[in-house]
Design goal:
The chain is α/β, with parallel strands linked by helices. The chain is built from 10 helices and 22 strands. It has helices spanning 75-87, 102-118, 154-163, 180-189, 203-212, 233-240, 257-271, 316-327, 331-337, 340-345; strands spanning 2-12, 15-25, 28-34, 44-55, 57-62, 64-65, 68-69, 90-98, 125-126, 129-132, 168-173, 193-196, 214-217, 246-249, 272-275, 287-291, 294-299, 302-305, 308-312, 363-366, 372-377, 380-383. The two termini are 23 Å apart.
């Protein structure tokens, strides 16, 4: 099957190609070009006038969707999540584990590692795992159960690493905790990317975490010490460090659009990363759902647990359109925040986050207004509008 996509523009690693075509063959990106130079032979045509073709999105912070939590660790549950993500333009993702009892975490890690190894899930591909906990600050734990928080421990991390059979790609750690710097250095030595978050760190403590190997910040603003003029705190360090990647939840609820614009001016096109922090409630009616085993009530588009915001029901396509609306940044630039940047941060830039011939045909199409109009995940084309 040779599927030809024609559109207003094509986002490539080197820039934007106007009036473009993109040829997909048997689920692989075959070739691309400008329509003025003629079109290649094809078996089916999908014309997307005015649209921007961009790499499919990569969500590095997903707890669940479609009524399922990733900590179920089952093929059926995770398949529902990956299928829903793909419908919203996500080609790859990191199942994200919330803080839980050690035995429950080990069980989930083993089950998820098996699914990653089998490579048989439909839709979006899980590239590895994100451990959001248990090495977090009590003061900034958010909804993470306090009884399951742990002091940073190389020994305990190694138990997680072995249960996951090396599939942990990202871990969130509060750098101010005793033992955290040693754990950050150890995890980084194994190739795990360390994100600083759920932290009450001062600016000095945050910078120490970066020096030890931290490369990103987890959901900037949320669950971190704020900026004060005499003590910039974790937030000040995150916004100030031009080399540090930083996530943000652009749903307009977790972070006010004014704060999103401040984030954008400081992190810029090279280091900002869009995430969803999506819950099992994503894509579902409002009501009661679970996050790692505890109850979350979703009402008015916000998940709450005991009066505390718990994750989101945001989808990545909405994150792109929201961020573009909040900041007025060019759509091609914003599209990279949901694909190229997360791929670079987690060390997958050689296989994901860009439209390159020979790679899996994971492509999305955005309208000029930033709305998702079509997806091609593994070459399976579908219109969303």
């Amino acid at each position: 099957m040779r599927s030809l996509l024609t559109a207003g523009a094509l986002l490539l690693p080197e820039g934007v190609l106007p009036d473009a075509w993109l040829l997909l063959e048997d689920g692989i990106i075959h070739s691309f070009g400008n329509r003025g130079d003629g079109l290649p032979q094809y078996t089916e045509l999908h014309d997307l006038p005015g649209a921007l073709l961009a790499p499919a999105m990569l969500d590095i912070h997903v707890h669940g969707a479609a009524g399922h939590d990733v900590m179920e660790g089952t093929a059926d549950g995770v398949a529902h999540v990956s299928t829903l993500l793909a419908k919203h333009g996500v080609g790859a993702w990191l199942p994200t584990l919330v803080t839980a009892a050690v035995d429950r975490t080990l069980y989930a890690l083993d089950g998820l590692a098996t699914l990653i190894e089998k490579k048989s899930l439909p839709g979006a591909v899980p590239l590895g795992l994100h451990l959001e906990g248990p090495f977090l600050s009590y003061a900034k734990r958010g909804v993470h159960p306090p009884e399951y928080l742990q002091a940073p421990s190389v020994e305990l991390f190694d138990r997680f690493w072995q249960a996951a059979r090396g599939t942990v790609r990202l871990i969130t750690i509060a750098p101010e905790l005793p033992g955290a710097l040693d754990l950050i250095t150890h995890a980084a030595s194994l190739g795990v990317r360390v994100s600083l978050g759920h932290s009450d760190a001062t600016a000095v403590e945050a910078r120490a975490g970066i020096a030890a190997g931290g490369v990103s910040a987890t959901h900037t603003y949320n669950a971190m010490r704020g900026l004060e003029h005499r003590e910039p705190g974790m937030l000040g360090a995150v916004l100030d460090d031009e080399n540090l990647y930083a996530e943000i939840i652009a749903d307009g609820k977790h972070v006010d659009p004014i704060a999103v614009r401040v984030f954008w001016r400081n992190k810029g096109a090279a280091r900002a990363i869009l995430i969803t922090d999506g819950l099992s409630a994503t894509g579902m009616p409002e009501g009661h759902y679970t996050l790692g085993g505890f109850d979350v009530e979703v009402k008015g588009g916000v998940g709450m647990h005991n009066g505390i915001v718990a994750g989101s029901v945001l989808t990545m396509d909405r994150a792109v359109s929201n961020f573009a609306s909040f900041t007025h940044a060019p759509l091609p630039t914003v599209a990279r925040l949901a694909s190229t940047n997360p791929a670079a941060m987690i060390g997958c830039a050689d296989s994901h986050g860009a439209i390159v011939c020979g790679r899996r045909a994971d492509v999305v199409a955005f309208s000029p207004e930033g709305q998702l109009v079509a997806t091609s995940i593994a070459g399976r084309f579908a219109r969303t509008q």
